[in-house]
From TrEMBL:
GO cellular component, one term: ribosome
Short name of any one Pfam family annotated for the protein: Ribosomal_L21p
Matches recorded under SUPFAM superfamilies: L21p-like (SSF141091)
Recorded superkingdom: Bacteria
Coiled-coil regions listed in the entry: none
Species: Reticulibacter mediterranei
MF annotations from Gene Ontology: rRNA binding; structural constituent of ribosome
Function: This protein binds to 23S rRNA in the presence of protein L20.
Compositionally biased spans, kind Low complexity: 129-143
GO biological process, one term: translation
Region (Disordered): 107-164
Protein name in the entry: Large ribosomal subunit protein bL21
Taxonomic placement: Bacteria, Bacillati, Chloroflexota, Ktedonobacteria, Ktedonobacterales
Length: 164
């Protein structure tokens, strides 16, 4: 039995007991999380395909830790132009162990409801919406001091000769 989940814009084929690395999630080590973006669930006798996600399905996973991936070298090069840029990158990762696959409130392994309540995964935190009253909008903002800076203007030879 396996499921296909989506996390961090990527899709992963997972089975119970499997360990996988996904893009960094804002979760502490040792916590159980619930991934509700399940695209497909399949076992020996049936398959559930979502459009785009399977309804009432989730994958429960435990966070084993945070780590950084293997270093990747990014090398840009343009022939005959003396352009060479070498950059390195290491991806931030979260290590997960898949505990259970749940469909319609029942575990596909045991056939019962899952024991532990897992936290839903929040991929990106959204900024809270702020509302302002009419009085706040009409009130003038506090005056702040603006430091005036002067920049020296470059002069060309033609300008400097006319100034003299």
């Amino acid at each position: 039995m396996f499921a296909v989940i989506k996390s961090g814009g990527r899709q992963y084929k997972v089975a119970v007991g499997q360990t996988l690395e996904v893009n960094r999630l804002p979760v502490e080590d040792g916590k159980q999380i619930s991934i509700s973006e399940v695209l497909l669930i399949s076992d020996a006798d049936r398959s559930l395909v979502g459009a785009p996600f399977v309804a009432n399905a989730e994958v429960l996973a435990t966070v084993n830790g945070q780590k950084r991936g293997k270093k990747v070298i990014v090398f840009r090069y343009k022939a005959k132009k003396r352009v060479r840029h070498r950059r390195g990158h290491r991806q931030e990762l979260t290590v997960l162990t898949i505990d259970d696959i749940v469909s319609e409130g029942k575990s596909l392994i045991t056939g019962e409801a899952p024991q532990a309540k897992a936290e839903p995964v929040v991929e990106e935190e959204e900024a809270p919406e702020t509302t302002t009253t009419v009085e706040e909008q009409a009130a003038p903002a506090e005056a702040t001091e603006v430091k005036k800076t002067t920049r020296r203007r470059r002069t060309t030879k033609a300008e400097s000769s006319t100034e003299e």
